[in-house]
Amino acid sequence: MEPILEFIDVCFSYHSTNGETPALSGISLSVKPGEFIAIVGPSGCGKTTLLSLISGLLLPESGEIRLLGKAQGTSGANIGYMLQKDHLFEWRTVYDNVLLGLEIRHGLNQQTKAQVSSMLDTYGLSAFKNSPPSALSGGMRQRAALIRTLALEPDILLLDEPFSALDYQTRLEVGDDIGSILRKEGKTAILVTHDLAEAITLADRVVILSNRPARIKKILPLHFDEAFDSPLKRRSAPCFSEYFDEIWKELKSNG
Fold first, then answer.
1. Which of 20, 88, 160, 231 could form an SS bridge with 179, CB 3.0 to 4.6 Å?
2. Do the bridges between strand 205-209 and strand 5-16 make them parallel or antiparallel, or are there none, so unpaired?
């Protein structure tokens, strides 16, 4: 199966009047269609920089990024980006909020409206379709933000700590919710998180970065029995603590 995303020896530095700050060094990574990748590493190591490079907001200084088998900028790949805040507008109904991306891209038609209505129904928000966002809980707001992003049918979904603003209990529930939705939709997703447990419960593989300039220290594949087939259930798996300890040990080692 051809990778949907490839980083080939990518390097990147930030430049300012104070000089150059190397951010990434020799990053090589391949992601398969439908795969869920979590990226962890020390604060400030360049995790979000990786997402900015995938989305095209930044360009690599050296190396190559390929999307859908083509050079970035020529692939026509549709990238979805989900941020820490849901950015729902109070003056629009929940339905109008989830249609916003389609509206901006001039993609509103009967078919796309029907798809959005179906997702609202499937993911438990149809009763709030005509309500303002203030009627939603924090978890429901994130679900609405995800539907808004999925409505654009992204080839790759980038998740930049989307649950970090939620309280712990809600974060667990929403992580389980959104992880299950992405599995059901078969979406390729790349998550940046500081929460190691979150990475283990959601991902197929965890990419562990070093201190800045970030390089890949290790890529850890995750394997869970069918009995632990959801993010919440994974936390009860016997191998969960082993994965956690392995990632923690890697993060704490020098280099």
1. 231
2. unpaired
